[in-house]
Amino acid sequence: MKxxxxxxxxxxxKQKNNRIILTIAEKLSLSCDISFVFPAAIVFxxxxxxxxxxxxxxxxxxxDGDFIVKPVCYPRLPGKKLSYLLIDAVRPKHYIDEKKxxxxxxxxxxMPDGYIAYRIKQKYxxxxxxxxxxxxxxxxxxxGCKGIVSKKFITVxxxxxxxxxxNRPQQELIAQLGFDSVLIPHGMESNxxxxxxxxxxxxxxxxxxxxxxxxxxxxxxxxxxxxYTDKQNIQVLIAGDGVCRDALQQLSNDVSNxxxxxxxxxxxxxxxLEKSHIFALPSVNETFGLVYLEAAAKHNAVIxxxxxxxxxxxxxxxxxxxxxxxxxxxxxxxxxxMNPAQIQQLANAAYVKVSQNxxxxxxxxxxxxxxxxxxxxKH
Length: 379
Fold this sequence. Notes:
By secondary structure, the chain is an alpha/beta fold. It is about 35% helix and about 20% strand. The protein has helices at about 20-30, 50-55, 110-125, 135-145, 150-160, 170-175, 220-225, 245-250, 265-275, 290-295, 325-335, 340-355, 360-379; strands at about 1-5, 35-40, 60-65, 65-75, 105, 130, 160-165, 180-185, 205-210, 235-240, 260, 280, 300-305, 320-325. The longest helix has 20 residues, at about 360-379. About 40% of the residues are buried.
């Protein structure tokens, strides 16, 4: 089965992005012949001088692992309302080899990836799957279904052979728009699972792992810990770097038990999570958040933002704690710190759930969808 991945959220030669799509492709490549197309946005001055667009100019095909990624440029206008207005200027044949048509396309965003898959389907009758991500949800929530670009979003969903979402809020939004979807959470490597639960309660460690940017709401953690006045001995370990680091350090500069570790290796992150009791990251605009799985795999009680990331994959109050605003987060974190039994209960329940979300469990869901769609096409 030949599958074309259309994905604009993969690592570039000079930029390290999330590798989750490449990981899925690597796992599926045992059963599928997967190729990659990268939709490269080309914008007009002065926006073309921005770092994220400048690196896309004259971008050549590159290799990532066993995959050769083919960039195809499309014109993008500034602003959400007009962003993809000119995407039809690029013809479907620019994205694929007409002599080796894929059996299926998998687009990893509604826009622009899904619209490219829709155009290919129009011309070559190639079915497509589209995955919904956080930026798609943001657009549909803020701009709705009206307007030229928003209608392109709906066109993609309407003509998709299958819609994949990664959490409950995404599935609810797609249902409100009148479309069915299947929820497939991201997976995790099984060797990260750690069955041990021996952690000392003498010092409660709260861990945070994230890029230090505003939407991660790491200031919530710092503010809540600064207000904590009870007797339990606690410390906070913050791993990561970013534009908000100076501001966050300034916010915590009078607190001796908050430690900034900077950017550390993945192995060091896992070691930190193995020793910590609570993982706190009330981040917003999260498509999923693999680090929540890793924290659960290392027996942490996890507290995060409601309607984001892994909400709906884990049960609220039983497997993880979800909060909608700072005051609720502060209250829940405070109560969790004071209740080691609840920490253990949440950690145990989340561990059981995450052990069912390793890649060995997840990848067959993708393969079943691919086979179902391609078999339906044959008949």
